[in-house]
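request received
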Amino acid sequence: MTTAGLAAVLLPAVVVVPIMAACLLLSLGRWLDRPTVDVIAVATAVAVSAADGVLLAASANQRLVAWLGGWTPHRGTGVGIVLVGDQVGIGAALVAGVLMSCALTFSWRYFEDIHTHFHALMMLFLAGMTGFALSGDVFNMFVFFELMGVAAYALTATKIEDPTAVHGALTFGVINSLGAYVSLMGIGMLYAATGQLNLAMLSQALTAHGQDPLAVIGFALTATGFLVKGAVAPFHFWLDDAHAVAPTPVCVLFSGIMVELGIYGVARLYWVGFSGTLEAGSIQRLFLVLGVGTAAVGGVMCLLQRHLKRLLAYSTIAHTGLFLVALGSLDPVATGGIVVYVLGHAAVKSTLFLSAGIILNRYGSVDEFSLRGKGRDARLVGAVFLLAGLALAGLPPFAVGLGKVVGEEGLVQSGIGWGPILFLVVSAVTGGAVLRAGARIFLGLGGGPGTEESEAMSGDKEMRELATGTTRLPAMMGVPLVGLLAAGAAVGLMPGIGSQAVFAAERFVDRGGYVAAVLGDSTGYASVSMRNAGWSTEGVVLCLASVAGALVVAGIGLYATALAQPVKTVVRPLRPVLHGLRGLHSGHIGDYAAWLLLGVGGVIALVIIPV
Amino acid sequence: MTLYPYLVAGAVLLLGIIGIARSRNLVHAVVCLAVAQSATYVLLLAVGYQRGATAPIFQSPTARAATMVDPVVQALTLTDIVVSATVTSMLLALAIQIAKRHASVDPDELRSLRG
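response:
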């Protein structure tokens, strides 16, 4: 079979097969017993991942293009729907497939009482994420965005008896749908300006017309919707609420890939659609301002948490900020760094969430203070959790560290000298918060809650997902836990992975190549020389510095109450600021909608006002 | 196309978001979300509209009208309505469950997810 023929079959299949599995499960679910349902769901996720793997291999030499139903464009125009796969897009789909396989395997023994609905929703969620990653036109990006959204809202409320779960799911649903409609307004404006929905034709029309204010506002609005999904401040408020209440296997997918897909959507829209016409300076300013703000808010809020899943959620927000900063350099090396970073982050953050799920089932709480010292008997989970905390801070050889090294190199090259400092501080703070929680729970270190901590949302009210606390770790839960952490290290150690990622990123940002492939002119990649990117001495030193910083942050967090007087006088003036920042995360749907409105205005202003 | 449809669509979207921001009842907030979405219908249909044009329906493949309104945006609007129905019903179901579990649908009284 030719590569083009393979693409024409497999590209639609990775979207359609999970939807068909969901329909099968929903229609036959009442006659199927639980193991059969589990087998069907896991087998589908594994099959989709395998197909993604085949496509990834095939996309090494050419862009894969599939026009659905054979509606190919005629003399440069057409109304057909196209799926396009390059290495970055298919890689994102592959990460979604692998994480879905792990989450479903983990759920096998994790939930005692769930129905077929859970599996069917997970399948629809996978279809939405895969479709979003492969979609070649802006309207289908919106449709898949909403498909993954609706599945995610329902999955957040899986524990329908839990009052916080339904509250979190509603907040998530309203804010994300609002974001989607802002996106759709933008898509309507893009269509009005160019008469095209297909990304490649849109890009071509924009280049022909020159810069049109309508198209620029259309870009700003469309990007805003994707930034809501990417949990970028001030659109991030839904994320910590949703992560705090969603079942742990679902959190793995939220933090591991769904949020990153939001950033991917913005990057795809900019690079393919607008990199030829939009002023680079204003887009750079947009990404850098939002990125730094997100990293700061996420980092500080992460330190203030005692609810374990909420703490991990804020760490995801902080890392999203870093992704956006690296993207803002508009440099292929930094973009390649994000690719590795996202792989490493997915592995490590998933491990941390699965550990939190095991802790919840065993001890009935995810509160750092209530669990102090209780985890001493859970040696394996404790060791995995602490190691993952170090990996999050950038410990070599994990892929998170490698992503940072390559990303920092790209940032410095493109003249953003403060980038590595931001990376170092955010890694130290988020890694430190995770290590602090881990040391308190598994090693029994540190004191009780101070005044600042007692204000935070407690993790005692989280509902268990099993009726009885289990003490033995079943293999179905242990294998994904250890496997994901090992995968994080394996990606970091893979020879040439940094250079390959930068190579893939060069192809991702190649606007002309994408347009030519979709319009059928040529599917081959433009030739770019392979650049050397990987572990470097300065990079490793910076990584070790952030690990050391994380240990210091953890130590201060553990023994803050026992610290000397001078330290307290330094901290005291900051208290109203921290109190205010915490107050902004009110869980109030009206506040979040107001922030969204403010954010939309901000994004439009940042894109329009000339630099 | 004039500026007028953009202003109407922008105003409806703004009203919907402000409605959610000031809402004292979650059912009201979900309906405000549907109001915000109807802004997208206005915009999409206005984008494809032409004065004096016919509906994009043909009796035979040869008889083509001189001008017709754009069928693509109408298809988009239909898809959009389906999405809206899914989201609204899903969120209303959650609002019912919140009323059962919290004994209130006033966002000001839901205090479980602070900080």
